[in-house]
Amino acid sequence: MSERTHHEFTVDEDGAPRLDLLVAQRLGLSRSQAATLIANGHVEVDGRRERAAFRAAREARIAVDVPPPPGREVLPEQLPVSVVFEDEHLIVVDKAAGMVVHPAPGNWTGTLVNALKGRGQGLAEGAASERAGLVHRLDKDTSGLMVVAKTDQALRVLSKAIAERRVTRRYAALSWGHLADDAVSVDRPIGRDPNDRVRMAVVATGRPARTDVTRLARFASTDLLRCQLHSGRTHQIRVHLAAIGHPVVGDDAYGGGGARKVVGLPPKRHFLHAAWLAFQHPMSGEAMDFRSPLPDALRTCLLTVAELPDLIASPNPLEYFHFYRADR
Questions:
Q1: Active-site residue, from 20, 139, 141, 223
Q2: pLDDT tens, 62-107?
Q3: For residue 35, which of 20, 63, 137, 264 is within the disulfide window of CB 3.0 to 4.6 Å?
Q4: Residue 139 falls in the annotated catalytic set
């Protein structure tokens, strides 16, 4: 269960922004969230409560108490979910694009967690109930493989394996333009975009993030890429590819959303798919290896940009481009 957290920082600049903006920037919140904290008396400046428009002087000490979010029951729902593997410890699913992973404000129903609970199975409760069992996440409009823990022990072991980079997560991506080299490692920190709290960005104050990118094919205006995560920051692949000037095709948030009809991509879909997931079973140590073919929408897009007749007969075009070869 989430707990109350306390934060303190010192204003280190002259002409600091108004208090709600300052708190939002320092804590990674939206301006409205920061304003609510201030209005409810959870923010003090040098021991005093001030209004949202107050501007603190240099060396002022800001203290912020963030109360736990109000509890909300996560209800089981009968929703379609593709199960790739399941035992008493974990479940591997192939998430469809458009499905949110866990409940949150604005999406309390219709999520993957709701769907898994609707199957009548227990999920690890080592985190807040709305994130029950989640070892890692996928963006709403990203499809593909995820592992979810059914027991707290499996959650601990798998989460540690993620942190120690012992879980292989490889994504198929189509990006605009052409990489300078066939293999690129993007090692840049990611944090909240200071100008738009909904987006992420490469920022000096962000958390370390590394994505290894391999070009599998070069088409007229796009590259087919295999992206391997070495960290798990929000929107990591999308942010990193946009930062090097090659956003994911169809990604409206990070500059790749144009020319959908040209590449045969439907609305509200970007070309990013978690196609390969490998890890050791948290209890037995057995090697687990799962592979997901491209969904129909992305397969159609790839056939359109590739213009290769041989691909039409291929049930999984990623095989044609050697996506699953370990030496690529």
A1: 139
A2: 999 987 665 567 889 999 999 999 999 999 999 999 999 988 766 7
A3: 20
A4: yes
